[in-house]
């Protein structure tokens, strides 16, 4: 006859259970350590959190819209000139925005090419015809400019070339407009004598120095 298995006492059973519990805790701890040191390659990649700035960190605002805006410089203004006065003076050209710097007696007329591409060129021509007209008995200077600010040699050269080229194109367009009866003939010399040999009005060149 085979011997019956020896029955453990209650004290021995408790000791065995305690030893098993301790071993299980050690195994669980070792498993966690291994997982931290060797993360599973099968885990799905974490999705990148989208930011408010949109894709690739770029802002939602489309800077390309600024590329189709054109500026016209207005100088020789009274220091306390108001936006209402300028809007009335340039009513025929209807600039989309007027920015005034009263401390310097200047302003910038802004024309949005995306807003009205068909008439923007004509409106700018009409605005440029206001050159040497008067606001409060002060003759103002109106000429094409470029955005960006500053007075670097590169920007001055860009202004010079742009004004010379635009002056030539403007004469052709104004001649056509006058022939069509859409505009009155400007005063003699008002479209050419205002620009120096460098392609910039003296007041404008002085401001950039």
Automatic annotation (TrEMBL):
CC terms in the record's Gene Ontology section: 90S preribosome; small-subunit processome
Residues of the RRM domain: 70-147
One Pfam family, short name: RRM_1
Keywords: RNA-binding
Biased composition (Basic residues): 46-59
Tagged with keyword Zinc-finger: no
Chain intervals for the UniProt region annotation (Disordered): 1-68, 177-209
GO molecular function: rRNA binding; snoRNA binding
InterPro entries: Nucleotide-bd_a/b_plait_sf, RBD_domain_sf, RRM_dom
UniProt record, GO biological process: ribosomal small subunit biogenesis
Residue stretches of biased makeup (Basic and acidic residues): 14-35, 177-187
PROSITE patterns: RRM
SUPFAM superfamilies: RNA-binding domain, RBD (SSF54928)
Protein name: RRM domain-containing protein
The organism of origin for this protein: Kazachstania africana (strain ATCC 22294 / BCRC 22015 / CBS 2517 / CECT 1963 / NBRC 1671 / NRRL Y-8276)
Taxonomy of the source species: Eukaryota, Fungi, Dikarya, Ascomycota, Saccharomycotina
